[in-house]
């Protein structure tokens, strides 16, 4: 019997999301509760484009979620996070991430 490894290799976007979560000082957004992050970019336009692409991907868990960008400082460099807020709990945020990952989006659930 032949087995195929279906585990996706980590990408640069995984690295950016992981590093962003671990080392970047946030700028207060005013949003609290469970949210998801689908990337961190060097421009607001790139972050907004990723949000728009996620919205049009047909992920039902995003129907009532609010897409937004959040600027943060990393040293002297500005990054812009692409996020969705408005999830009832951790399970809802994780479900959204699972659906997005099936459509080749990077995603992490966060509580703020």
From TrEMBL:
Ranges for domain SPOR: 28-112
UniProt superkingdom: Bacteria
Transmembrane regions: none
Molecular function per GO: peptidoglycan binding
Protein name: SPOR domain-containing protein
Any one Pfam family match given in the protein's UniProt record, by short name: SPOR
Gene3D superfamilies the UniProt entry points to: Sporulation related repeat
InterPro entries associated with the record: SPOR-like_dom (IPR007730), SPOR-like_sf (IPR036680)
